[in-house]
Write a structure and sequence with these properties.
alpha+beta, Alpha-Beta Plaits, single chain
Length: 101
C-alpha cells in the first residue's frame, strides 16, 4: 500500500482528477485553497500580493501498477504544461498501516 500526494494550481485540478479517475484510483481526498510556494512558479497565497491557490490530493493505492501509471500520466501532463505554474507535483511513499472500518 502506498500514499500518493499531488499538489497543483487550482486551474488544473479538474484535469488532475480526470487523470486519477482514468487510472482507476478510487480512494482519495481533495483539499482546496492550499497556500503554496515552490521553486518553479510564483507563490500562491490567495491574497492581493500573491493571488491564486493550490489544491492537494492524497490517495491510498494498493496496486503498484496504478501508482506507476499515475506517475507516468502526470509526467506526460507536465511535459505538455502551458507554463511552470501548471505543473503537478507528485510524491509517493509506502504506507505501513491502513484501515477503514
Amino acid at each position: 500500500m502506498h500514499i500518493i500526494y499531488c499538489t497543483c494550481n487550482i486551474s488544473v485540478q479538474e484535469q488532475l482528477l480526470e487523470i486519477i479517475e482514468a487510472c482507476n484510483i478510487r480512494e482519495y481526498q481533495v483539499t482546496d485553497q492550499v497556500k503554496a510556494k515552490n521553486k518553479k512558479a510564483d507563490p500562491r497565497f490567495n491574497d492581493p500580493v500573491w493571488p491564486g491557490y493550490n489544491s492537494s490530493i492524497f490517495m491510498q493505492v494498493k496496486e503498484i501498477e496504478k501508482l506507476e501509471l499515475l506517475a507516468q500520466k502526470i509526467k506526460e501532463f507536465n511535459a505538455d504544461a502551458f507554463n511552470a505554474a501548471e505543473l503537478v507535483t507528485f510524491c509517493a511513499w509506502p504506507m505501513s498501516h491502513y484501515f477503514f472500518q
